[in-house]
Amino acid sequence: MKEQLEKIREEALKQIEASDALDKLNEIRIAYLGKKGELTSVLKSMKDVAPEERPRVGQMVNEVRELLETRLDEMKGKLAKRAREEQMKREVIDVTLPAKKSNVGHSHPNTIALKEVERIFVGMGYEVVEGPEVEYDEYNFERLNIPKNHPARDEQDTFYINDNILLRSQTSPVQVRTMEKGKLPVRMISPGRVFRSDEVDATHSPSFHQIEGLVVDKNITFADLKGTLAEFARQLFGPETKVKFRPHHFPFTEPSAEVDVSCFKCGGTGCRFCKGSGWIEILGCGMVHPHVLEMCGIDPEEYTGFAFGVGLERIALLKYEIDDMRLLYENDIRFLKQF
Ligand code: DAH
C-alpha cells in the first residue's frame, strides 16, 4: 500500500510539473483526486488494510492528497500568470504612433447668417418666435389676403398634405399666428424652413429658409419701416450701405416694397457682383394690410404695422460671395470650413 501511494505521488508530481495548460492541469486533478481518481480508489480499498495499519495508511493518503492539492494550486497560479503575460505582450499599445485626428464640425453659412440677423433684431428689441413647417392653407394663404383663386398662389405652389394642410411656402403665416394671440404691441422676427415645388438650380431649391419680421403698435408708419430696414442693412453689410425702396406688390401689405442695398462690393458704381446696376435686392416688405389686421382680430383704426420677409440663403450667398445655392445643401466640410 505504501509503495503504491509513493508511486502515485511521484507519477502525479511529474505530470503536474510537465503540464503546460490549465485544462490539462484540471484533467490531472480529476485523474488523481476525482471521484474515480487513483487516490480516491486507494481510500476505498482501506477495508483490505489490516486494522492496526489503517491510521498510518490513512495519514499517508491525506498527506499525498494535500501535497497534490498544493502543487496543483501552485501550478495553476503559474500557468495563469504566464497566460496573462503572453496576452499583455500580444496586446501591447504603441503610444508613439500618431493619434487619429478628431473631426470637429463647423457652423453652416446659413447658421452664421441667421445668428447675425437675430443679433441685429434682438438688439432693436425684437423677440424671436417660431411657427410650424406643416401649416394650414388658412394661415399660409387665406388670412394673408391670398384667397383660393388668387394668382399669387401660382408662384408659391407647394407640397400639399391634403386640401387644407400644406408645407408652408413662406414664413408669413407666423404673422397671423402671432397677431391672433392678441398680445400687443408685437415686435418679432421668425426664422424657419419653407417649401416650394421648385426645381433645383443655382438659385432655387424646393426647401429653403426665410426670416419674417412683424411690428404692430399704435402709430407705426412707413418711416418706422424704412428706418428699421436701413439700420438692418447697415449693420449687416457695413455702415456705408444705402437702401432703396422700390414699389412692389404683396397681397398682405399695402403699400408694399422691395428693398435693394447698394452693392457692398463696388460701393454702387456697378460691377460683376451687382450685374452692373450698383444695387442688390435683399427683401420684400410693406405696411400690414388693414384687412389682414382685421382677419387677425386687430382693429386697423387703432393699430398699424409693418412686415418684411428676407431669404436666409440669399443673405448667406451675398455675404459670403457664394455663387451657387446648391453648395449650401451638400454639407461638404471642406466648403463649410471657409466661413
Ligand atoms: N412672404 C413673401 C415671399 O415669400 C416675402 C414677404 C414680402 C414677406 C413682404 C413679408 C412682406 O412679410 O411684408 O415672397
Output the number of helix runs. 12
- Oligomer type: single chain
Task: Please give the domain count.
Answer: 2
CATH superfamily of the largest domain: Bira Bifunctional Protein, Domain 2
Q: How is the largest sheet built, in terms of strand order?
A: 1-4-5-9-8-7-6
Named CATH topology of the largest domain: BirA Bifunctional Protein, domain 2
Radius of gyration: 43 Å
SSE run:
HHHHHEEHEHEEHEEEHEHHH
Quantity of strands, as a count: 9
Would you kindly provide a written description of the structure presented here, covering whatever features stand out?
By secondary structure, the protein is α+β, with helices and mostly antiparallel strands. The protein folds into two domains: 2-90; 109-336, 2-Layer Sandwich (BirA Bifunctional Protein, domain 2). It is 41% helix and 19% strand. The protein contains twelve helices and nine strands. It has helices spanning 2-18, 22-33, 38-44, 54-90, 109-123, 137-140, 173-180, 222-237, 290-295, 312-319, 327-330, 333-336, and strands spanning 127-128, 134-136, 165-167, 186-195, 207-217, 243-250, 253-262, 279-288, 304-311. The protein has a seven-stranded mixed β-sheet with strand order 1-4-5-9-8-7-6, sandwiched between helices. Strands 2-3 form a two-stranded antiparallel ribbon. The N and C termini lie far apart (93 Å). Bound molecules: 3,4-dihydroxyphenylalanine. The site of 3,4-dihydroxyphenylalanine has 11 residues, from β8 and β9.
